[in-house]
Amino acid sequence: MLECVILGEYGPFPAPGGACSGYLLRCEGVSVLMDCGPGALSRLLTYQAPEALDAVVLSHLHFDHMSDLLSMGYALEIAGRRDLPLYLPDGPHRVRDLLAKGPYALMPMEDFVLGEMAFSFCPARHPVPSFSLRVRHGDRALLYTGDTNRHEGLLPFAKGCDLVLADAALPEDLWSQSAPHLCPRLCGELARDAGAGELALTHLRPDADSARVLAQAREVFPEARLAREGMVLSLS
Ligand SMILES: [Zn+2]
Predict the structure, then answer these.
(1) pTM summary value
(2) Please, which residues have CB less than 5 A from ligand 1, an ion?
(3) Residue 182: is its pLDDT beyond 90?
């Protein structure tokens, strides 16, 4: 079974008591942290020690997706864990350089297999180098859009996945072709057109009307849900 535990679902800053993007993937004894924004480390610690992770994958290097990796470096050093594999884009360099000083082994965003999880990546449309991730376990697959607006490569990459975890950062009235994020309706269309059975909306703005966000997605994908801390999405 592949499980995705929601550690944080807000962006670009958390709601009071909440956390930004962070998702713990667990599959047959292997665990991978996918993004690690403000608050995500605290939530991770309720499930497992960071030194027990097998890898970390960052969709991109905006702070709301990676800042807790800096303090996680201290925890790893205290635990004596070095060279934790960290898959990340190659820029912006000023941010990447901060992580290079930590106890991480920096890896390129190239397809890899870890245990029974197979990771693949698709370049996203966002102001810094960014990727969407697809995680396959057997014949089941999860798609995480990361931060992106729509682009011609996204649907082919998502096609046939079972579960979509999508960037619903922008309410429809703030979305445009040149925006850095999707909106709830586009998340719904992506899940529907990919043939997915489940959609979880994430990267939620703390000031957003969450009922409205959900309603906008459900107009095209009635099974849409809001990602919420502690929620476990599972594929078996
Ligand atoms: Zn971003």
Answers:
(1) 0.96
(2) 62, 147
(3) yes
From CA 181, how far away is CA 201, in angstroms rounded? 12
Distance 61 CA to ligand 1 centre (A): 7
> Which residues fall within 8 angstroms of residue 87, CB to CB, at 6 or more apart?
55, 56, 57, 58, 107, 108, 109, 112, 119
Amino acid at 69: L
Instruction: Using the mean position of ligand 1's atoms as its centre, give its distance from the Cα of residue 28 in Å.
Output: 30
Q: What would the pLDDT profile of 70-83 be if each residue is shown by its tens digit? A: 999 999 999 999 99
Distance, CA of 149 to CA of 163 (rounded, Å) = 19
Cα 84 off chain centre by:
18
Q: How far is the CA of 64 from the centre of ligand 1 (A)?
A: 7
pLDDT for 15-56, tens place per residue? 999 999 999 999 999 999 999 999 999 999 999 999 999 999
- Tokens 């905006």 belong to 62
Ligand 1 center from residue 236 Cα (angstroms): 30
Which domain covers residue 116, as residue numbers? 2-235
Domain CATH code at residue 194 = 3.60.15.10
Number of domains in the chain: 1
